[in-house]
Automatic annotation (TrEMBL):
<dbReference type="GO" id="GO:0006564">
    <property type="term" value="P:L-serine biosynthetic process"/>
</dbReference>
<feature type="binding site">
    <location>
        <position position="151"/>
    </location>
    <ligand>
        <name>pyridoxal 5'-phosphate</name>
    </ligand>
</feature>
<comment type="subunit">
    <text>Homodimer.</text>
</comment>
<keyword id="KW-0718">Serine biosynthesis</keyword>
<feature type="binding site">
    <location>
        <position position="171"/>
    </location>
    <ligand>
        <name>pyridoxal 5'-phosphate</name>
    </ligand>
</feature>
<dbReference type="Pfam" id="PF00266">
    <property type="entry name" value="Aminotran_5"/>
</dbReference>
<comment type="similarity">
    <text>Belongs to the class-V pyridoxal-phosphate-dependent aminotransferase family. SerC subfamily.</text>
</comment>
<dbReference type="InterPro" id="IPR000192">
    <property type="entry name" value="Aminotrans_V_dom"/>
</dbReference>
<keyword id="KW-0808">Transferase</keyword>
<protein>
    <recommendedName>
        <fullName>Phosphoserine aminotransferase</fullName>
        <ecNumber>2.6.1.52</ecNumber>
    </recommendedName>
</protein>
<comment type="function">
    <text>Catalyzes the reversible conversion of 3-phosphohydroxypyruvate to phosphoserine and of 3-hydroxy-2-oxo-4-phosphonooxybutanoate to phosphohydroxythreonine.</text>
</comment>
<comment type="pathway">
    <text>Amino-acid biosynthesis; L-serine biosynthesis; L-serine from 3-phospho-D-glycerate: step 2/3.</text>
</comment>
<keyword id="KW-0032">Aminotransferase</keyword>
<feature type="binding site">
    <location>
        <begin position="237"/>
        <end position="238"/>
    </location>
    <ligand>
        <name>pyridoxal 5'-phosphate</name>
    </ligand>
</feature>
<keyword id="KW-0663">Pyridoxal phosphate</keyword>
<dbReference type="GO" id="GO:0005737">
    <property type="term" value="C:cytoplasm"/>
</dbReference>
<dbReference type="InterPro" id="IPR015421">
    <property type="entry name" value="PyrdxlP-dep_Trfase_major"/>
</dbReference>
Amino acid sequence: MSRVYNFSAGPAVLPEEVLKEAAAEMLDYNGTGMSVMEMSHRSKAFEEIITTAEQDLRDLMGIPDNYKVLFLQGGASQQFAMIPMNLMKNRVADYIITGQWAKKAAKEAEKYGKVNRIASSEDKTFSYIPDCSDLPVSEDADYVYICENNTIYGTKFKELPDTKGKTLVADVSSCFLSEPVDVTKYGVIYGGVQKNIGPAGVVIVIIREDLITEDVLPGTPTMLTYKTHADAKSLYNTPPAYGIYICGKVFKWIKAQGGLEAMKEKNEKKAKVLYDFLDQSRLFKGTVEKKDRSLMNVPFVTGDADLDAKFVKEAKAAGLENLKGHRSVGGMRASIYNAMPYEGVVALVEFMKKFEEENQ
Ligand SMILES: Cc1ncc(COP(=O)(O)O)c(C=O)c1O
C-alpha cells in the first residue's frame, strides 16, 4: 500500500488513524457482528454513535445549549435553499459575495425573496474579502449570509462582518473545525463535511433554537424544515449513518490532537511553510491578498498555463495529487485541511523548489 499526499479541495484527505480504525471495524463494529453500514439507525449501537458524535462536536466548538446540532443530507448546496425557506420571514436577506459558493447561495435565495448583495469582491476575481465593518445592512433583512472560507479562491474572513444586529448565517464547509470559533456570533453555522470532517453525504447545521420554527415559507417540504430534524434529533428518517460514524471518529481525532486551538496552531504552521515559499518564489505567485489568506486552500500560479499544467502533471508523478486549480480559475490550488500532515506541505514546497530550478 502506498498513500499519496492528497491536496484535493474535497472530498479530501482524512486522518490515516481514522481510516485504519474504520477498516478494523468494518466487519464487526464493537462486538455487534455487523458493520455500521449494515446497522439500524434505531439500534442502541447507532444511538450511541450519533449522541457521542454530537457531544464531541459540542465540546470541540463550545456549542451553547441553545443551539441544535443537526446531521443532514443534501450537501452544503441544499442549505442554499433550506436557509431562505426556514429563515426568510420578511422575504429579505443580505448576501456578501466572496466567491462562487456565495454567489450560488444568493441566486438560490432569490427564488424565495429579495436578495441584497451588500458587498462583493468580484471586481478583483474574488482575491480579497471586502471591508465589512460598516455594511449597508437592510433594515428588514432576515439574515446576513457569508461563505466564511472561499474554497475556490483561497480567502477567509479573518473578522466576521458587522451585521448590525441581524442574524449571521455562515457556510463554513472548507474551514470547519480548523480553528476555534465563537458560536454565539452566528445564528446558523453549516458545512458539508467532505473537506475537514468526513465522507461526502453529511452536512452539519448548528442553529440557534429561536430560528427553528414551524413558521417556514409555504410549500417548504417536511424534509427541508429544520424543525423536523431538530425535533427528531437528526433521526426523522434514515440519516447518513456511516458518514456520521466517520465524523464522530474525526471529532475524537481532533480532541486527541488537542482541540481547535491546537488545530489552528498546526494549520498556521503548515500554511506558513507554503506562503513563505510563495512570497519569495521567482516562479510561483499566490493569488490572494495577504491579509485575507485562507489556512485551508492555497491557490497559486506561474502565470503560464502550459507551465501550470506541466507542474500539476509532474507533481502527480511525484505523489502530490490533486493540485490543479478549480476549473473556473485555473492555475494550482493546494488544499491543506486538518488531516494533511506537515510533512505533506514540506514535500510540496520541496517539489516546487525543484520545479522552479528546472524551469527558470
Ligand atoms: C464553501 C463551499 N460551500 C458549498 C459547497 C458545495 O458543497 P456540496 O457539494 O456539499 O453541495 C462547497 C463545495 O466544494 C464549498 O467549498
